[in-house]
Amino acid sequence: MRIGCPKEIKNHEYRVGLTPESARELVRHGHEVWIQSGAGLGIDATDAEYQAAGARIVDGPDLIFSECEMVVKVKEPQADERKKLREGQILYTYLHLAPDPEQTVDLVNAGVTAIAYETVTGPRGQLPLLKPMSQVAGRMSVQAGANALEKAHGGRGVLLGGVPGVMPGKVIVIGGGVVGFNAAQMAVGLGADVTILDRDPEVLEKVGTHFEARAATRFSNEANLQDALSTADLVIGAVLIPGAAAPKLVTRESLKLMQQGSVLVDVAIDQGGCFETSKPTTHDNPTYKVDGVVHYCVANMPGAVARTSTYALNNVTLPHALQIADHGWKAAMRSNPHLAEGLNVWDGKVTYKAVAEDLGYEYVPVDKALA
Fold it and tell me: Most buried of 34, 143, 198, 263 (most Cβ within 10 A)?
């Protein structure tokens, strides 16, 4: 199979779909790998390194989109890239379609076979291709929040860890999954006063056992959430419904409960955000204020630590890429039902139920695509 990897064009996105090591593995399996010149520079991977791995370097993205059977990326294709997609082409990347009707329309109209990293499952129902980026984003959320809390950046002027004789900052983590767990780890490590909210008793037991007295846990209902918001310095939104739009847990009205200069970090912004007042921002202009509350809603947080993120991502995406390339996407999905969960769009149809429901498409089961 001919596999192409273009340079990412989203604002401050430095990750790349294939590392030189991943390209080498694909070549070793007998496939052609085309890399856009300069695609790896954000992780300090040069064209020469890709060539040494057996890849072909091409100028610009046009040849990749017009000639390659499978396109491997990191972020969802931007509008200019979507114009280049063609019928029957395999697109293997993060998509986050539920909050993005324009992208969904373009992928449906293009007739591509779109496989989303974020909905591929694991043996126990986990999301292994989303997990490493959730780990990165969770840890970064506290760094970003701590920075936004500084007075010069519009925050309350609170140091999360405090100092002797001064109370530490209060961090509220909404959601105890992968993002929330990693956010709590960082906040606890800084010495903050940390509370984790979740609706799943098993999750609360797990994080409670792990953190012991270093972090508190509370059941997530409206009363407890509003009480927590009223004293919070930093709130991390870390909720996820796989493939679906995130629920709006913090309303505009709730902001009136919060302290002026407190900070919301919405890690669920790729799925539409879990705060009613959230809107996607970029690393160029990461924050804005609503009712005196600072919002940080960067939609590609892990792109800022591109080298760490790219290698963590390739560790989990490469095995599936090899399956698809070695056997074709249909045979790969027939033998691996977890990979089949990643199929979101095929032949002009939406094949992921949550996306179809959220955006009003007829849902076509993956089994029909594989028949």
Answer: 263
Q: Among positive and negative, which fits the CA dihedral 46, 52, 58, 63? A: negative
- d(CA 62, CA 9) in angstroms, rounded, equals 13
- Token pair listed for 7: 């340079």
Q: Under 8 Å CB-to-CB from 337, ≥6 apart: which residues?
A: none
Side-chain-side CA neighbours of 155 within 13 Å: the count stands at 24
Q: Give the whole-angstrom CA distance, residue 293 versus residue 24.
A: 48
Report how far residue 371's alpha carbon sits from residue 357's, in angstroms, rounded to the nearest whole number.
Answer: 23
Q: So which residues are the catalytic ones?
A: 96, 270
Neighbouring CB atoms inside 10 A of 241's CB total 14
β-bridge partners, 36 = 58
Answer whether 0.70 is exceeded by the pTM: yes
Residues with Cβ within 8 Å of 105's Cβ and at least 6 positions away in sequence, in order, are none
Domains of the chain: 2-119+306-370 (3.40.50.720), 134-299 (3.40.50.720)
Listed in sequence order, the residues at least 6 apart from 72 whose beta carbon sits closer than 8 Å to its beta carbon are: 3, 4, 5, 17, 18, 92, 93, 317, 321
Give me the amino acid identity at 277.
T
**Amino acid identity at 326:** D
Q: Using one digit for the tens of pLDDT, what is the confidence trace for 222-251? A: 999 999 999 999 999 999 888 888 999 999
CA distance 283 to 8: 15
Q: Which one, of 111, 120, 117, lies nearest residue 82 by Cα?
A: 111
Residue 311: phi and psi, rounded to 5, are -70, -40
